[in-house]
Amino acid sequence: MQIDGIDMLPGRAEYPRNQWYVAAFADELCREPLHRMLFGDPVVLFRQEDGAPVALFDRCPHRGMRLSNGGTLVGNNIQCNYHGIQFGPNGRACLIPSGGTPTSALAVRRYPLHEISGWVWAWAGEPDLADPSLIPDHAELGLTATGLNAYFGERLDADSNYLYSFENLVDATHISFLHHGLIDSGNVAAHPYTVEQQDNRVIMRRVFENEVMPPMLVRSMQLSGGPVNRTLDLISYAPNVCVVRQEYVEVGRQDLPVREMRLVFGITPAGPKSSYQFVAVAQSYENHHPGLFGDLRMLLMEDVVALNDVQQMFDLLGPDRVPEISVRSDEGAIRTRRLIAGQIAEERRHVPQAAE
Ligand code: FES
Ligand SMILES: [Fe+2]
Predict the structure, then answer these.
(1) Are strands 241-250 and 228-237 parallel, antiparallel or unpaired?
(2) Is pLDDT of 276 > 80?
(3) CA dist., res. 243 & res. 91, Å (int)
(4) Range(s) within the chain of domains with CATH label 2.102.10.10
(5) CA of 85 to the centre of ligand 2 (A)
(6) Counting atoms of ligand 1 from 1, which one is nearest the CA of 85?
(7) How confident is the model at residue 287 (pLDDT cuts 50, 70, 90)?
(8) What is the CATH number of domain 20-114?
(9) Any residues with Cβ below 6 Å from ligand 1, and which?
(10) pLDDT at residue 354 above 80?
(11) What's the chain's average pLDDT?
(12) How far apart are CA 129 and CA 179, in angstroms?
């Protein structure tokens, strides 16, 4: 599927490079080098002595060993474990133990980072173009908002193109089937919805009345178990975040506060056919459910099974034999896909050298 000349066929869809993506949870980064595939690149992440995070291309340009493979930190530099060349946080070699002066060619790419609350964001494009104002507003997401408690937890790895991951989160109708009653009473798929689009956001809203929720939701929302009125919003922030926002009002219990819970997903391409979901939870109440992230993982692994299966079928059959026939409820996904394609087309129009 081409949109604006961009290949957006899920299974091999392109993604914007001049954007920020969640690279890690903040507590994953320390004084030990961490290897992670990001946007198709091997990347090594660590912290400088003052705690500032660093991300560099994870291949030593001398003889090609991964810097993270046994590499050690010497002050703010990373020392390759093969012949000991050291690279500074800017990616340039600064010391060659065997002698000689480092040339400008002896350098690795640096990825600008931005740490906000429990997430570290990385810029996938040209470092000089990094624009922090493009990072979604964390207060709006609910991760730094007054009145909401944020928890940062699970990372899910899917062997599927990032667009499959992204669109799965925009699509509520699978809740009734793939999640077989774990988080609804079987009524989401057929329920009416509205769609609204604002800038780079697509919001799909469903409003339910007088529902009895299944035990898993009663536990995680810390509800009394009686009927509730609820609002379910799926909000996509193209190209990097999806929010599942739920608001619950217990019917006939004006004494109980309205409960709000958001699942906030940072969606990051790991490679052309692999992606991460960095999951955070924001809720209007203190979390007293110790199994919150365990429950979530169990639920979200059902999505991963589906995502991996869809990618396997794409790879097995090839792009000419995987027709994709959309139905009405795919509107949110298709709108999001168009937004992302527009972002790629835009960056190619203005910054052609950034496209890789
Ligand atoms: S391969 Fe890294 S120093 Fe030689
Ligand atoms: Fe799901």
Answers:
(1) antiparallel
(2) yes
(3) 34
(4) 20-114
(5) 46
(6) 3
(7) confident
(8) 2.102.10.10
(9) 60, 62-65, 80, 82-85
(10) no
(11) 94
(12) 41
Q: For CATH 3.90.380.10, list the domain ranges present in the chain.
A: 138-354
Compute the distance between CA of residue 202 and CA of residue 256 in angstroms, rounded to an integer. 31
What is the percent of the chain where pLDDT is above 90?
85
Question: How much is the pLDDT for 116?
Answer: 97
Structure tokens at 88: 């500074």
Residue 356 has pLDDT above 60, yes or no: no
Q: Does residue 290 or residue 116 have the better pLDDT?
A: 116
DSSP H/E element including 123:
strand 119-123
Residue 129 neighbours by CB under 8 Å, 6+ apart: 18, 123, 351, 354
List CB contacts of 303: < 8 A, sequence separation 6 or more: 156, 158, 168, 174, 178
Ligand 1 pocket test target in 44, 56, 65 with most atoms within 8 Å of CB: 65
CATH architecture of 138-354: Alpha-Beta Complex (3.90)
Q: 353 pLDDT exceeds 90?
A: no
C-alpha to C-alpha distance for 235 and 333, rounded to whole angstroms: 10
State the Cα–Cα distance between residues 24 and 120, nearest whole angstrom.
5
Helices 162-170 and 292-317, interaxial angle, to 10°?
A: 130
The average pLDDT across 61-84 equals: 98
CA distance 62 to 1: 41
Of residues 229, 217, 232, the one with CA closest to residue 173: 232
